[in-house]
Predict the structure.
Amino acid sequence: MIIKYSKPDAPFVYIVGAGPGDAGLLTVKAFRLISDIADIVIYDRLISEEILNLIPDSVERIYAGKSCRKHVMTQDEINAALVAEANKGKVVVRLKGGDPFIFGRGGEEAEYLIQHDIPFEVVPGVNAADGCSAYCGIPLTHRGLATGVRFVTGHKQKGEEVNLDWKGLACPDTTLVLYMGLTNLDKITDKLIGNGLDKDTPAVAIQEGTTKNQRSCFSTLENIYKDACEMDLKPPTLVIVGKVVGLSQNNA
């Protein structure tokens, strides 16, 4: 099967989810856009080398990586770059890890493009929760164990306290997925236990999920922060809490 996409008239921006890291999880459309359509790719820190190698040498690249307290470009600068490059008559691919609309700030970029009359399209990607859980053998929902799943961020803007619906999140029949939760994991686990979630609830922290560098720390809600620190896990790390974690065959 060959799927072809026509190059749109410039200016045009694609906000594209690249998935959680494994190039095999790129959608067909994302692959076609970076390999055949893009004039320039503005990409994040979480884009793996494997995926970057799929971009032809003739395509211009701008690195817009951001990590905790260290930004090559601020979000405002990224927004401005999207508009500036598009207005040069280019088709711009904004390549983001995971899915651009799940804790990816893709919505902010879309709003900025609308404000500046730049046509765009959003291309969803495999989100980190789906990819990391699957590569650890963890179903996010499972009959008799989890009737729902919630995605939350464990990171707030500088100086802000992580203030979530702790009572609602401490539901034993729900799988909890924490994005960017490593730094505040000790506070988060204390809040969940304090609001009634069993301290022995299975939990796992997954660093660089779906990539060749994936590392997983299986533990309990009470001990996951300590055990992740002992393994010296670093961002990007996703944390999953819930009874479904106990189903993983990787936790031997």
